[in-house]
Amino acid sequence: EDQVTQSPEALRLQEGESSSLNCSYTVSGLRGLFWYRQDPGKGPEFLFTLYSAGEEKEKERLKATLTKKESFLHITAPKPEDSATYLCAVQYLYNTDKLIFGTGTRLQVFP
Amino acid sequence: DAMVIQNPRYQVTQFGKPVTLSCSQTLNHNVMYWYQQKSSQAPKLLFHYYDKDFNNEADTPDNFQSRRPNTSFCFLDIRSPGLGDAAMYLCATRVGVGGKYTEAFFGQGTRLTVV
Fold first, then answer.
1. What is residue A17's DSSP assignment?
2. Given an 8 Å threshold on Cβ–Cβ distance, is A87 in contact with B50?
């Protein structure tokens, strides 16, 4: 069964304390991996798309990287406004239309 | 400015009473998805459309139906809601052409409560 696993489930950081979130997937043949941010009671907001191993994308304090079996979302010097749930979604080559989501990492950044 | 609009934002329905959730988009995207998301869980794909082609997930209950009368609109019908159907329902759209796909854009969701 296709699986997307995110870790940790929850993460509490002090403002300015950098860390990384992990997204691992079980099946080879990746078409694309997507990172989203979701605030409570809202729909996911797109952050990054990664297509091939070695690719990196950056936006403000966030940087996403991709290997052949996992992706990392690095958060540098986070601020309280970065608090949210971060979701990754995978699209496989053999199942082109579907986006399969992980359970997310719930990030809390304290001042 | 909203590009994927879900109505209503909050819906309260009675146990067993049919309910319809709607999604509209101004992006002219050909692929549309319906996801169910329960508290602290991953969004779970219910079905999706590629143009007019409907794709139902194997584990989507028969209680859930969908219609897409045109590119812009998509509906989720729950024929006989049970307490277990209380969740956030998310609609998403994207472009898929020739094996190439854009990122998916999500609406704000409809929070369904069953009483």
1. -
2. no
Of B4, B50, B106, the CB nearest to A97: B50
* Rg, C-alpha atoms of chain A: 13
Q: Mean pLDDT throughout A50-75?
A: 95
CB contact under 8 A, B35 and A101: yes
Which amino acid is present at A60? E
A33 and chain B in contact, CB less than 8 A: no
Percentage of chain B exceeding pLDDT 70: 98
Res A95 pLDDT > 70: no
What parts of chain B have a pLDDT lower than 50?
Answer: none
DSSP string, A4-34: EEEE-SEEEEETT--EEEEEEES-S-EEEEE
* Per-residue confidence (pLDDT) for residue A101, from 0 to 100: 93
From the list A91, A98, A101, the residue facing B42 with the nearest CB is A101
For chain B, give me the number of helices (H) and strands (E)? Answer: 0, 13
Distance between CA B24 and CA A34 in Å, rounded?
Answer: 23
CB proximity A32 to B under 8 Å: yes
Structure tokens at A111: 């001042």
